[in-house]
């Protein structure tokens, strides 16, 4: 009786490990490094507090749109111009596929210096990107007078 329960335990252990490794092995991850630039979109076509549309190149190439969903003051009187934000991005790749992302970050709004940092977590897409995962980290500058953003990114995208 002891021997058969050990065999069952060992067999179940191998099954669980194999079940966890197979999905990981099926993912192909690609490192990403690149740059972006965009223009602030008019309030009459923006459903949130801020929207941008522009281009991305490097590890990801195509056009993108960002919609800020929420902006939250940071609560620190020493840096009152810096706020936290959440939003969503859609990257339209040259292949015609789309990559969807959820954005979280901080931005220094006027009269602040305009810097921002964001983490975009990929949540799928269309075509070959339908089940994409991964993240990119952005850092950039927001110029409210020119109505532009620009910067760079680094991260990884994984597809089945």
Main attributes?
alpha+beta, 160 residues, AOC barrel-like
Q: Your description of this structure?
A:
With 160 residues, this protein is of the alpha+beta class. The protein has one domain (28-159): SO1590-like (AOC barrel-like). The chain has one helix and eight strands. The protein has an eight-stranded antiparallel barrel. Strand 3 and strand 4 form a beta hairpin. The longest helix is centred in the N-terminal third of the chain and has 25 residues, at 2-26. Mean pLDDT is 89; it is low at 7-22.
What are the SSEs and their pairings?
Blueprint: H1 2-26, E1 28-40, E2 51-58, E3 62-73, E4 82-93, E5 98-108, E6 115-125, E7 133-143, E8 148-159
Antiparallel strand pairs: 1-2, 1-8, 2-3, 3-4, 4-5, 5-6, 6-7, 7-8
Short description:
By secondary structure, this protein is of the alpha+beta class.
């Amino acid at each position: 009786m002891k021997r058969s329960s050990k065999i069952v335990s060992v067999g179940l252990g191998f099954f669980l490990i194999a079940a966890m490794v197979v999905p990981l092995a099926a993912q192909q991850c690609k490192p990403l490094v690149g740059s972006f630039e965009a223009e602030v979109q008019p309030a009459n076509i923006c459903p949130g507090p801020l929207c941008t549309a522009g281009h991305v190149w490097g590890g990801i190439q195509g056009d993108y749109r960002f919609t800020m969903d929420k902006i939250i003051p940071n609560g620190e009187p020493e840096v009152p111009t810096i706020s936290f934000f959440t939003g969503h991005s859609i990257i339209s790749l040259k292949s015609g596929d789309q990559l969807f992302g959820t954005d979280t970050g901080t931005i220094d709004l006027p009269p602040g210096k305009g810097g921002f940092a964001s983490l975009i977590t990929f949540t799928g897409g269309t075509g070959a990107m339908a089940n994409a995962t991964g993240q990119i980290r952005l850092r950039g500058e927001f110029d409210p007078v020119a109505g532009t953003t620009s910067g760079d990114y680094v991260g990884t995208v994984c597809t089945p």
